[in-house]
Amino acid sequence: MTSTLRNALARVDDPILDDDIVSLGLVGDVEVDGDTAHVPLALGAPHSPVETQITEDVRAVVRDEGYEPVLSVEIDDTTPAGQMDGAPNVIAVSSGKGGVGKSTVSVNLATAMAERGANVGLFDADVYGPNIPRMLGVQSEPGRADDDGTIRPVESHGLKLMSIGFLVGDDDPVIWRGAMVNKVLTELLHDTKWGDLDYFVVDLPPGTGDVQLTLLQQIGVLGALAVTTPQDISLDNARKSVRMFEKHDTSVLGVVENMSGFVCDECGTRHDVFATGGGQRLADEFDHPLLAEIPLDPAIQQGCEIGEPVVSDGNSEPARAFRTLAERTMDQVGRERRRSHANGAVEIGQNQ
Ligand SMILES: Nc1ncnc2c1ncn2[C@@H]1O[C@H](COP(=O)(O)OP(=O)(O)OP(=O)(O)O)[C@@H](O)[C@H]1O
C-alpha cells in the first residue's frame, strides 16, 4: 500500500531540480494508518513559492489515492544552517560599496518574506550606517528578556529586528577597530533571543573586509545576495563581493540590481539614470541568476524615511519588484537545501 502511494508521489515534480520528488530522495518513509497517510518531506525553504506548490501537489496526489494527507517537513543536508537556535536559513545581503541600497533591499526583502508567512529575523550589522530601525519606523529599544538575561529583539512589520544601531545610535561615528566590531556584533547576535526563525537576513556592512568575513564564518551563511546599481563603478565593487563569497565557499543566491531605471509618472517613459543591464552582466559573468531589478522610485526612498517599507504598498511597481525578489530568493534557498539533501541522499545510497 505504501509502495503504491510512493509510486504515485513520483508524479510530483520539483520544477527547480527538474526531477520527481521521489527520485530526488525528498520523500521519507510513508506510513499509512487507516485512511490517513503520513508523508515526511525533505524541504528547506518554508513559504517559498516552489515548496508551497510541492506540498499542495503532494496533498492532491495523496487525496487522489484515497487518503487524508498528514505532512511533516524535515531536511538533512550539508548546507550551513545558521548557528543560532532554530538554525534558520541565513541570507547575507552584501554590496561592494556603500549607498547602493543594500539596507533598503534587506528591509523590503525581509518584510516581503514575513508577509508570505515566514518567521523572519533581520540583523542590521551595518556598523557604518545602521539605519534599519529608522527604515522600519522603530522607536523602541530592545529589552532584556526576564528569564536568562538574553536580549529580546524588537518586533516590527512582522519581523524580529536587532541592530548595531541600538548600541551606537545612527548619528555616532563608528571609530571601532575591526576586532572590536567583530566582538560586539558576535555578542549581539548570540545574546539575542531570536526564537524559531525560518529565515535570517543579515545586512552586512559594505565592502569585503575582515568584518564581513568574520560574520560569514560566525553565522553560518547559507547564501548571499550581491546588490549593485547598474553602472560600471558599482559593478566593479560588486564583483569583489562575489569573489569574496566564492573564495570562502559561500554560495551566491543571486544578483539584485537596484536603482535600475526610473519610470516617469507623467510620460511613462523609462530613463536609465545609471546606465542599463549591469546587474545582468554581473549575473552572467558569474553564472548566478539576476533575481530582481528594483526601479529607482521616490516611493522607495519615502518608505525608508517614514518607516514603512514600500513592499507593503499594495500593487505599486516597486512593491511588486521586491515581492519578486523575496519569492526568487526563497526559491533559491530551497534549491540549495533540496539539492544538498538530494546529493547527500544519492551518496549514502538512500535514493534508490
Ligand atoms: N531603488 C531606490 N529608489 C529610490 N531611492 C532608493 C532606492 N534604493 C535606495 N534608495 C535610497 O538611497 C539611499 C541609500 O540607501 P541604503 O541606505 O539602503 O544604501 P546602503 O547600500 O545600505 O548604504 P550604506 O551601506 O552606506 O548604509 C536611501 O536614502 C534610500 O532610501
TrEMBL record:
Segments traversing the membrane: none
Q: Where is this region: Disordered?
A: 331-352
Q: Which GO terms describe its molecular function?
A: 4 iron, 4 sulfur cluster binding; ATP binding; ATP hydrolysis activity; ATP-dependent FeS chaperone activity; metal ion binding
Annotated binding of ATP, by residue: 96-103
Residue span, MIP18 family-like domain? 4-63
GO terms in the biological process aspect are: iron-sulfur cluster assembly
Q: Which top-rank group of organisms is this from?
A: Archaea
Print the keywords alphabetically: ATP-binding, Hydrolase, Iron, Iron-sulfur, Metal-binding, Nucleotide-binding
In the UniProt record, does the keyword Nucleotide-binding occur? yes
**A Pfam short name:** FeS_assembly_P
Give a short account of what the protein does. Answer: Binds and transfers iron-sulfur (Fe-S) clusters to target apoproteins. Can hydrolyze ATP.
Subunit-level organization: Homodimer.
Query: Belongs to which family?
Result: Belongs to the Mrp/NBP35 ATP-binding proteins family.
Official protein name in the record: Iron-sulfur cluster carrier protein
Traced from the root, the source organism's taxonomic lineage reads: Archaea, Methanobacteriati, Methanobacteriota, Stenosarchaea group, Halobacteria
